[in-house]
Specification:
The structure is a homodimer. Chain A is an alpha+beta fold. Chain A is 40% helix and 21% strand. At the A-B interface, helix 1, helix 2, helix 3, helix 6 and strand 3 of A face helix 1, helix 2, helix 3, helix 6 and strand 3 of B.
């Protein structure tokens, strides 16, 4: 049953995980989506060790997921803040799908700490599978993988 | 800016990653969604070392993401195969979102190895954000997180 393109080096899932699958990296991205852009704030909100955080940010910048923007607080040295690129913004469904599953299956008895709502109407937001013709898919059973 | 429920131990994203974020685990789940249920087949398709795979499967069973079902090939000892539970099935959007991002940004020049299509109509499948009132959301900017 081995098919070469399912080996980790060719698989899109494995490649994505190789770049952003690490736990601190995903929490850095969570902060970026919350609009938290500065090193010390990211560190405080994630609890990531300083050197780990620095390394993770560098990898994300190197791969074009985040970009550095200079800023300066009066009387302090110039620093950088970190902003999502388009490539980074496109990771949002990954974070939401991880979050929603955790909300459903791993939350404490008093429920998940954060709910995502549609800014336009206030209804709760979830990830769904949808085809280019506009059909919503209820489960993996409605998906047919086509291999090249 | 520190809010206690954003620390990794309370965050639904971090909790989900803690259970399924490891690379081999996610590849095991990929195989499960492809209908690959037997240890040796999963091993061949992922390239996971035997002991690693065995440990990852045990964790997934322990947490109710997979369940063991006995089977026996004539003349061989009884074995187990691994099937997705409902809890496991609900991880599908996580895998698809990881895959689609990798397809878009990390694929080789000849394109991604697998395309997901809607079994009903053949159109390509993607993950989208949608609210309970049926609105499709184009980006994270349309989402308002509400903290408890």
């Amino acid at each position: 049953m081995t098919q070469p393109h399912y080996l980790p080096e060719d698989c899109s899932i494995a490649r994505t995980l190789g770049l952003v699958g690490e736990r601190w990296t995903m929490l850095v991205l969570r902060e970026a989506f919350r609009g938290v852009r500065r090193f010390d704030d990211i560190r405080a909100n994630t609890g990531a060790p300083r050197q780990v955080l620095s390394a993770r940010l560098s990898v994300l910048v190197e791969h074009g997921v985040l970009r550095r923007e200079p800023y300066q607080v009066l009387g302090q040295r110039a620093r950088h803040e970190y902003r999502l690129t388009r490539k980074g913004m496109d990771l949002y469904p990954v974070l939401v799908s991880l979050m929603r599953w955790g909300d459903r299956y791993l939350a404490d008895s008093d429920g998940p700490p954060v709910e995502l709502t549609h800014a336009g109407c206030g209804a709760p937001v979830d990830v769904t599978l949808r085809c280019a013709d506009g059909h919503l898919l209820d489960s993996a059973r409605e998906v047919r993988p086509v291999e090249r």
